[in-house]
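Exercise 7. Predict the joint structure of the components listed below.
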Amino acid sequence: MNIDEFVKERSPERDEISLYSLAFDQLSSKLREEISKNDIDAEPVLVGSVAKGTNLKGSDLDIFIAFSRKYSEKEIEKTGLLLARKAVPSGKARYAEHPYITGNYLGIKTDIVPCYMIKPGEIKVSSVDRTLLHTKYVNENLSDTEKNEVRKLKLFMKAAGIYGADVMTSGFSGYICELLIINKKSFDSVIKDLSNLKGRLRIPEHADLAEFGNSTAIVIDPTDPKRNAAAAVSLESLSKFKIASKLYLNNGFNAVFNRKGRSPELNKRGTVFRLISIRRPDRTEDVLYPQAARVLKKIEKTSFETGFRTIGSLVQLTEKEIRILIEFNREVIPSVIIHEGPPVDNGKSLEFLEKWDSRPILRGPYVMGDRLYVEIESDVINLDRFLISVMEGFSLGGTLESERQSLKIINPTGLGEYKKMMKEYLSKGLFN
Amino acid sequence: MNIDEFVKERSPERDEISLYSLAFDQLSSKLREEISKNDIDAEPVLVGSVAKGTNLKGSDLDIFIAFSRKYSEKEIEKTGLLLARKAVPSGKARYAEHPYITGNYLGIKTDIVPCYMIKPGEIKVSSVDRTLLHTKYVNENLSDTEKNEVRKLKLFMKAAGIYGADVMTSGFSGYICELLIINKKSFDSVIKDLSNLKGRLRIPEHADLAEFGNSTAIVIDPTDPKRNAAAAVSLESLSKFKIASKLYLNNGFNAVFNRKGRSPELNKRGTVFRLISIRRPDRTEDVLYPQAARVLKKIEKTSFETGFRTIGSLVQLTEKEIRILIEFNREVIPSVIIHEGPPVDNGKSLEFLEKWDSRPILRGPYVMGDRLYVEIESDVINLDRFLISVMEGFSLGGTLESERQSLKIINPTGLGEYKKMMKEYLSKGLFN
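Solution:
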């Protein structure tokens, strides 16, 4: 297979395009009807990849209800949800930066999102407001051929595991794909440039680095030149983009799109795994993932200080559970801790001796170099006791703290429930 | 008990003094007889603590045969040994910087050492030559009362585990004790000064630091002002001297002279021990100890790089064996090694992928930050395999390499043979 065949396979066919068109017509009619019935100053707008004609097969349908700026944020949130529920009665409310309705319409996953009408240069209120401007800009600057190039690039990003601006992926949004094609004209030239790129990505190439701190990727948003559309791109995602581009150019389509996954054996690693499980609060991934990442970081830091070394980790959010999988170098650390006392020159050196001469010790006190030392027994001997004490020692933060009573520390090895996650961890490859 | 009672107990009584006197008279007569019989230009001289009257009970008898400088080094070595053997026929040759004879005479351990006659300011040939000058200087500068103060100080140093300039102790020689008393007049003032001393020791106090690099202790040799008599003193020994002085001043005689040893339990440490045993070549401790220390250092360094951490160590020389005892944090390290590849920007990144895509791995290759990584299986999994490979990987150096075939790696825990050494390790205290 080559990239053109693959894009064709993944692009919506005529039937799907008609169905999306129908769905938007019906939903916008319903919304307009409700809007006029209630005398509201608002308008349904098709946004996202469908509106821009850069969508892949089976994409979401994104409809914004753009309200006049005369309404308060609270008003548009409340009215917006009411209107959206009329259009998609089976929809459910979700809470990101603002609430919205997500549901199924004619078999299409549909999001209906309230926002403000906004014109270029106007002060933005919420990040969703900007979507209207993005839709307009892309439609004015992309030819039909180029829209197909965007789809190629999106599929390439997906294959490289870097498609999506969500916190877990920290990759490239659809809008960045569009801006890359607008800037470089074709998929091939994007790939060629990325395969040769050293250091940061800069679009346009003369973009002022100073203004965007130490962002890994700088893609200036043409609808708001002070904004870096690629601020969320991680160093890892950019690195994957580069190595994927090199592989594609040198080794062809399959090297990226059909890269063989490997599942090496667990029992050769000589390590131990623990899984922290916390019940999932009713929040989106973009809220929960950074909280889980902070908990992980805290565990890693304390482990290092105590003598456990973490080898790798994986955070997953299931519908009901936050899972933090951590691989440790060992299950038990020596109980002996070498406790550093004052230098002998120090006024407190005799005090130190007095203190430890009357306490239980494992060795010492003794002199090493110009200091006193004593070896004492560590409180923390095994990994489970250690993790329990770590987890008790700090706030889980945000919404996780409220779920503390659900916290479990599990040895996932051999448990069917966590088999898939373990496999995902072990088969970590270039693009997954 | 107080220090004065203790010194009295440990000082030679009249009978012992007479016996030493008799022994020297007889030995020097024999030597003189042989010297004149063979028409040699040489003279037996009593040196060391007996000659200076600063000896403790049961000390060695040190007799030098001082040769005219007209003889070559080889000549005095050869002739010196022949003469000494006539005086103490049961004596054995020992090889330090130069060979000498050590044996038993009238129940006294006696060393007979050939050297050159040397006068102050003359270029020294061997470090033993200087001993003549030291003996003369001390006798001219110490009163009888002060000689007793030297004995106090020597006993104090012994109690603090820092008496001796040998490599294992790296402490204070008898000559330094004498110089300290000459400089500070009394034991009490030495202890008072040391308990307040911060940083390096300097005798005399105006001694030029620059001339002696970063020596921990600088005690200028009055018979050779360019020489630091305390060059061999380690930071640890000086630190022990300081803390012992503080303890003596604050807590009295028993705090230093009868400091309680503690023998904590082994099984609470959660660690593992290994003992490297090598047959002892026929060399003095001062030659073998640094060689064993180098082997230990090499093992410690490689352990750290591989993931084993060393907690402590102890080197002992028995009559037949060199023993290097090492405590490790664990017996097994994870077999997984995180192997760092090139940055993705690097021209070799695809090469790295190609290489590892076709080799056995434990995980990866994957991207982290701006680099490629792969997790591979370590060759070294358990401590014994690790130690075998380390010991095979470098030369033991010096005379030890010739004994390589005798090298054994032993787990000493529970072995009666090493019980005493283990106990010594575990009961490491302030002054032992």
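Discussion. Chain B touches chain A through 60 residues (CB under 8 Å).
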